[in-house]
């Protein structure tokens, strides 16, 4: 495993409850089983569309255990994972062709203009304050070369409400009250009544381009990852069938940038460039 030094003292630190959530180990299987596969496959196909030809130097910030780094390296890219969770760094660093190190998206242990692509496929989830999100995007801009690509994922503002309805948990009064509060301002706080996630920010897709602009990045497009398919009760079975899976993926492509439907997706990828 290739592990480089962690950021210097004084760098931002991960909140304890977020670290505890990820130390449960759910990132190993979240995108490889059940409905999570839709998010994985769609993220993969979108990234392949926007990444430069191989070999590109890719910095995967908040890359977890390397679920995306693995196939990126397999495609021939040179991939480095930076993540604040030691367990994630250890596992990602075992992947062939992947280098992993401890680090925070708001203070990247990275040289200026060193990468062709910087991915933020998770860090913005856990930065409730706009200045922190802009800081992380500005760090990505610093690390990417002029003309390079920055791709950031956000959780949609009403993803929690839609998911609670899908699961039936919205009919529990305590869950409904918390879900409605998140829908109002995007701020999700951990609670024993809501154990499925931790401190997070659920973004209005319309606000993200402004944060890119504030960080000095030119926004080039936004793409709904799962569309509406993730809300369908039979999606797990559809994804098991190769023919139906391709139909679901094709349908999601059709609406991926439709403004009136962008917020129905669970996640949105925003693509920007350092110009």
Q: Please indicate the percent range of residues in DSSP E strands (runs of 2 or more).
A: 15-25%
Head-to-tail CA distance between termini: 34 Å
Compute the average pLDDT: 93
N-to-C order of helices and strands: EHHEHEHEEHEHHEEHEHHE
Cα-based radius of gyration, to the nearest Å: 18 Å
The tally of helices reads 10
**Most strands sheet:** 10 strands, mixed
Provide structural commentary.
The chain is α/β, with parallel strands linked by helices. It is 36% helix and 21% strand. It has helices spanning 16-22, 36-50, 67-74, 86-92, 130-143, 159-167, 173-185, 208-214, 235-240, 242-254, and strands at residues 3-4, 57-61, 78-83, 98-102, 115-120, 144-156, 187-188, 200-203, 218-224, 267-273. Helix 5 (130-143) links the parallel strand 5 (115-120) and strand 6. The longest helix has 15 residues, at 36-50. The two termini are 34 Å apart. The relative contact order is 0.15. GO terms for molecular function: methyltransferase activity.
Keywords:
globular; single chain; methyltransferase activity; SAM-dependent_MTases_sf; alpha/beta; S-adenosyl-L-methionine; EC 2.1.-.-; 10 helices; 21% strand; 275 residues; transferase; ten-stranded mixed β-sheet; disordered N terminus
